[in-house]
């Protein structure tokens, strides 16, 4: 299993090329990366650590990191729901750091 440092480097290289950056809050990022690794060990896939996963990959495809909600969240709020990925403007305090509402539909609607 990869460690947080290795995961950070891998994700950073891939996501920065797409315009997504890690939050400058290192403690928060470190905790979220550990959550991704824990979920990988627990479920076999890296589900978003700030959402409840079912343990069934097919049901959780929308919350496998980076989740499908990241793009609209970052576009509208500058940050994804959990705050792992942000825009450069968000990191540079060029926009408000607003609460990002949950976009994932309730279980009954999935």
What do these coordinates show?
This protein has helices spanning 4-16, 26-43, 57-60, 70-77, 88-91, and strands at residues 21-22, 85-86. It has a two-stranded antiparallel ribbon. The chain starts with a helix and ends in a 19-residue tail after the last helix. By secondary structure, the chain is mainly alpha-helical. The radius of gyration is 14 Å and the shape is globular.
Mean pLDDT: 94
Helix amount: 40-55%
In order across it, which strands form the biggest sheet?
Answer: 1-2
Order of helical and strand elements: HEHHHEH
CA-to-CA gap between the ends?
31 Å
Q: What form results from the Cα inertia axes?
A: globular
Strand content: under 5%
Structural class: mainly alpha
Unreliable stretches: none
**DSSP strand count:** 2
What does the radius of gyration come to?
14 Å
SS field, number of helical segments: 5
How would a textbook summarize the main sheet?
Answer: 2 strands, antiparallel
Question: What are the main properties of this structure?
Answer:
globular; 43% helix; 110 residues; two-stranded antiparallel sheet
Topology of helices and strands:
Elements: H1 4-16, E1 21-22, H2 26-43, H3 57-60, H4 70-77, E2 85-86, H5 88-91
Antiparallel strand pairs: 1-2
């Amino acid at each position: 299993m990869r460690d947080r440092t290795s995961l950070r480097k891998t994700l950073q290289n891939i996501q920065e090329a797409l315009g997504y950056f890690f939050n400058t809050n290192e403690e928060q990022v470190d905790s979220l990366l550990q959550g991704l690794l824990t979920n990988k060990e627990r479920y076999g896939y890296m589900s978003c650590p700030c959402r409840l996963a079912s343990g069934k990959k097919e049901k959780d495809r929308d919350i496998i990191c980076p989740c499908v909600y990241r793009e609209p969240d970052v576009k509208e709020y500058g940050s994804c729901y959990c705050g792992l990925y942000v825009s450069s403007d968000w990191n540079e305090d060029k926009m408000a750091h607003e609460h990002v509402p949950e976009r994932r539909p309730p279980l009954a609607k999935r």
